[in-house]
Amino acid sequence: MTHILQGLRSGEWLTAARMRGYSLILLGLSVLAFAGWIAVSDGLIDRNGQPIGTDFSNVYAAGSLTWQGRAADAYTPALQHAAEKAVFDGRDVPFYGWHYPPFFFAIAVLVAALPYAGGLALWLIAGFAAYLTTIRTILPRQETLLVSAAFPAVFVNIGHGQNGFLTAALLGGALHWLDRRPWLAGVLIGLLAYKPQFGVLIPIALLAGGRWRTFGAAAATIVALVAISFAMFGSSIWHAFADSMNFTQTVVLEQGGTGWQKIQSIFAAVRALGASVPVAYAMQASLLALLAARRA
User: Which of 78, 128, 143, 162 has the smallest number of CB atoms closer than 10 Å to its CB?
Assistant: First the structure.
């Protein structure tokens, strides 16, 4: 037993052959699971009554509204839900809120130019390619692509039609290029602003590290994105986004409308344990202050 534990700790058991074999097994099981899930679905609706690609449905619906000249409606839950139902011929699918800032409509419009299945395929394939490219750039080894493709989070991300591939590519790419090409790293961080919650500690870390070129490039990228959204939709779209944040804060965050397990934060953890909203905010603020102090 001692010998086995020592082997596990040292990592000697994970040979190249085992790494390849385990990855192929995981990848094969994932493919079979996806094939089976689609086979038992009712068209674009799975056996649980949810859209294939679940979370992607909000992106596609928002893009459809934009094509109709009604982009701001995506920030009104009732209208966004109606648009999601319309995508699936009026089927009573669950509501998936649109919480992205206005410049992310550019992606939504692109995928909504295709039928839903095609848009989902474009969303996943493009994101997956960006994710693999970034990981391969960080770790240029022969087995990188296979291991990265078999990573269990890939299975989860594809199954839920999530944006994790894009987020991983932008954040991973930014960290990789931070020393080599600080301006490029800044642009990637700026593009990551489609997930505003990532913009809390990153600026503090950049300033604390004296990464002025990266900070400047990130700020310039965000300004450019905002300016483009103003040119495309006017200021009203930002008013709609600001108004929607009350729903996001109260229903999604404070009440856990989407499920506490989907919010990876100390705030969600203490709320799931029954703590009050003020206590949860205090815990989250304390953690933020601690992390910011460590970076400063």
Answer: 78
Q: What is the 3-class SS of 104-135, one letter each residue?
A: HHHHHHHHHCCCHHHHHHHHHHHHHHHHHHHH
Report whether 264 contacts 156 (CB < 8 A): no
User: In a 3-state reduction of DSSP, which class is residue 55?
Assistant: coil
Mean pLDDT across 223-251? 92
pLDDT of residue 252: 85
Distance CA 133, CA 135 (A): 6
What is the model's pTM?
A: 0.89
Compute and round to an integer the Cα radius of gyration of the chain. 21
DSSP 183-240: HHHHHHHHHGGGSGGGGTTHHHHHHHTT-HHHHHHHHHHHHHHHHHHHHHH-THHHHH
Distance CA 99, CA 243 (A): 11
Greatest distance between any 2 Cα atoms in the chain: 67
Q: How many residues does the chain have?
A: 296
